[in-house]
Specification:
The chain is mostly beta strands. It has 4 domains: 3-168, Muramoyl-pentapeptide Carboxypeptidase, domain 1 (Orthogonal Bundle), CATH 1.10.101.10; 225-384, Immunoglobulin-like (Sandwich); 393-552, Sandwich (Immunoglobulin-like), CATH 2.60.40; 555-690. The protein is 11% helix and 39% strand. It contains 6 helices and 38 strands. The protein is extended and about 90 Å long. 37% of the residues are buried.
Length: 692
């Protein structure tokens, strides 16, 4: 029978006693008993999620000011535990939950997040919603520890966190409290963190023979001891801490000498100052974690009770670690911290090992040994920048992968879909950022051209984030993406891609072949959220995309392959000369391309970056040496040479086209479609040769 049914049965029984045998309950009137029944019913609903949570699923972020039935359900779930209770009496208390998310609800949410091992925040985000959705219902589950009715809070019978799933506990355990009834192993170790072949911390692995408590091979039991030679390289001291969750603060290299060793405890000194004045560590640190690599061994709340003070020193004993080190090996033990959010000014934290018995271990014979926290550089210092905690700066820059200008074949039936237009980078520093809005400027040859742009699309890799239509009527319009949630981690760079769809009837309505479309992005049009949920805009310079030239059903795509040049020193006269080779590929798309000839190409020579005009000698080789069929590709080798008036001219190179009006001429279907292409040729050049 569920806990809800049990309580309801009790309520009904009490009601019958009150009605049928009033003489037995002279201490209370019927009205008082009915009031008690109503209160108990409210508590039942609070335990089970009934009533307030009926039909509710958490699907949106909730914050101070939010209203709705999901807020009332949230308060109901929070009120299941005294630890996370919204209020003891009045609005928000058990049975008196409201639909308004206020300051008391936020405080309770943050306690719930901490109890669930989630990042404490000013919002009910996706991870918290997942936990709340799992908690709706609230009956005693087979995977919950004893004494728990949900994953919130702590067990009323064992005191362990109710977020621990019994399915991950060692055999014979129903919670993380005490020892297994079948193996005697500690119930505090989850099976997911045990060595391969182990179901508890007792005995040895059936697949490796290693100890299930430490992962170490048994070997012969010998006496040994531990030593500490240095701190681990990571983490290093850091004067710019701008986040508050699980920040590594100390790594210790511990060596097992002559025997397998199990480190049981570490004494950690914590010194906190604000504006040069000492403070209790609990004013800054909320919790400490101990890790063996990526495996969390234990966590410790930092409170006035858990921190020990001796004179002016504050330290903590982090015990029950069960950190195994095989004989002769050195392993790093890492300690991380959660800092209290929202402090008014910066704090400086100094962390080091404490005392001559800073680290305590046990060898394979069970003999204890200790290692001092002195004799080496044992201190790490951190400045937690509270002016920057919760802040971030997002910078927008051009990506070198932005496609060059090219000819786009707009099919008369299907148009052109997913034409790459722009690639840009976003980088977040100081903290993480979440991009929420982007507004692109789209320009074209004229308004008629932009009328043919069906959609602007935004991609994260191959994932489509959104597709929007242009807004405006001129040759410059906007494409605005809203309600995005693009996360950019601290110190990370995310690249985003913009594509366009072009309508099929290109030449109708005033548009024509060789019209262009271009997409640009100004940083001021990039809106993002900082970690504290405040909204601001990005910095950087405007990212300018390349122009894409549209052709009605027929186009040629030109690709640069290579370029080379050589200077020949004069032997008789005072004149020398340089030769160059530019290799390209041409692809016919939509018709038969007439075979290129030398006259189709304009190649200029340059000395020290200044144009000398068209080259004096030029010839072209086409492979295969025919017209290029639709859908086929040909290799074109352009050989050029230029006589130099004298030696000592400088650095000479050759380039196809001049970026403004000349480059290469191509035609399809005997001139039905033709163009002198100067776009996309800026990199079609040879390296410079030294004509000194």
């Amino acid at each position: 029978m569920s806990i809800k049914k049990t309580i309801i049965t009790t309520i009904v029984a009490l009601a019958l006693v009150a009605v049928v045998a009033p003489g037995v309950t002279q201490a209370a009137t019927v009205a008082e008993l009915l009031a008690q029944i109503q209160a108990l019913t409210a508590q039942v609903n609070g335990l089970s999620g009934a009533g307030a949570c009926s039909g509710v699923t958490f699907t949106r972020d909730l914050a101070v000011g939010s209203t709705g039935s999901d807020v009332k359900c949230l308060q109901t779930i929070l009120n299941r535990s005294v630890t996370t209770q919204v209020a003891v009496t009045g609005a928000g208390s058990p049975g008196a939950e409201t639909t308004y998310f206020g300051a008391k609800t936020l405080a309770a949410v943050q306690k719930y997040q901490a109890a669930q091992g989630l990042t404490v925040a000013n919002v009910v985000g996706s991870l918290t919603r997942a936990s709340l959705n799992a908690a709706i219902g609230g009956t005693v589950g087979a995977n919950l520890p004893a004494g728990c009715t949900s994953t919130a809070g702590y067990s009323s019978t064992t005191g362990v966190s109710c977020s621990t799933s019994a399915g991950n506990l060692p055999a014979g355990c129903t919670s993380t409290f005490g020892y297994s009834s079948t193996t005697g192993a500690s119930c505090s170790v989850s099976a997911g963190n045990l060595p391969a072949g182990c179901t508890s911390t007792a005995g040895f692995s059936t697949t490796t023979g290693a100890s299930c408590s430490t992962g170490m091979s048994s070997g012969a039991a010998t006496e040994g001891f531990i030593t500490i030679s240095s701190l681990a390289a990571a983490p290093a001291s850091n004067a710019n801490i701008t986040t508050v969750s699980n920040i590594p603060v100390l790594g210790v290299n511990i060596k097992a000498v002559n025997s397998n060793e199990t480190v049981g405890s570490v004494k950690l000194q914590l010194a906190v100052t604000k504006s040069g004045n000492a403070e209790h560590p609990a004013t800054l640190i909320q919790k400490l974690y101990v890790y063996d690599g990526g495996t969390q061994l234990a966590s410790f709340p930092v409170t006035t009770d858990s921190v020990i003070k001796t004179g002016s020193d504050y330290y903590m004993i982090l015990s029950g670690l069960n950190f195994g080190i095989p004989a002769g090996q050195t392993k790093a033990l890492t300690i991380s911290a959660d800092f209290n959010a929202g402090l008014e000014t910066n704090r400086v934290l100094t962390v080091n090992l404490y005392g001559d018995d800073a680290v305590r271990g046990t060898d394979s014979l069970g003999i204890n040994s200790t290692a001092p926290g002195s004799g080496f550089t044992s201190t790490r210092v951190y400045t937690i920048k509270y002016a920057s905690v919760g802040a971030s700066t997002l910078t927008v820059t051009a990506n070198t992968g932005t496609p060059i200008s090219t000819s786009v074949n707009v099919d008369t039936t299907n148009g052109a879909t997913d034409v790459p237009m722009l690639v840009f980078n976003t980088k977040s520093v100081t903290g993480a950022s979440k991009i929420t809005d982007l507004e692109f400027t789209v320009t074209g040859t004229d308004a008629d051209t932009l009328d043919k742009v069906d959609a602007i699309k935004l991609y994260d890799g191959s994932t489509l984030l959104g597709s929007v239509s242009l807004v405006g009527t001129t040759a410059s319009r906007t494409a605005t993406f809203t309600d995005l949630a693009i996360s950019v981690a601290k110190d990370a760079t995310k690249s985003l891609l913009v594509k366009a769809d072009i309508a099929s009837d290109l030449t109708s309505g005033g548009a024509s072949s060789e019209d262009f479309v271009e997409v640009n992005l100004a940083p001021a049009n990039v809106t993002y959220e900082e970690p504290d949920l405040s909204s601001t805009t990005a910095s950087g310079s405007t990212v300018v995309g390349k122009r894409m030239y549209l052709f009605d059903n027929q186009a040629v795509v030109v690709t640069f392959v290579s370029g080379a040049s050589t200077y020949t020193v004069p032997t008789v006269s005072t004149d020398g000369y340089t030769t160059g080779v530019i290799t390209i590929k041409v692809k016919a798309d939509g018709g038969l391309m007439t075979k290129p000839v030398a006259g189709d190409f304009t190649v200029d020579s340059y000395t020290d970056g200044i144009s000398n005009g068209a080259v004096s000698s030029k010839n072209v080789t086409v492979t295969p040496n025919t017209d290029v069929p639709d859908g086929s590709e040909a290799t074109v080798v352009i050989n050029v040479s230029e006589t130099l008036a004298n030696t000592g001219s400088g650095f000479v190179n050759f380039k196809l086209g001049n970026d403004t009006s000349t480059g290469m001429y191509w035609e399809l279907d005997s001139g039905a479609t033709s163009a002198t292409q100067f776009w996309g040729l800026e990199d079609f050049k040879t390296p410079a040769s030294n004509a000194q």
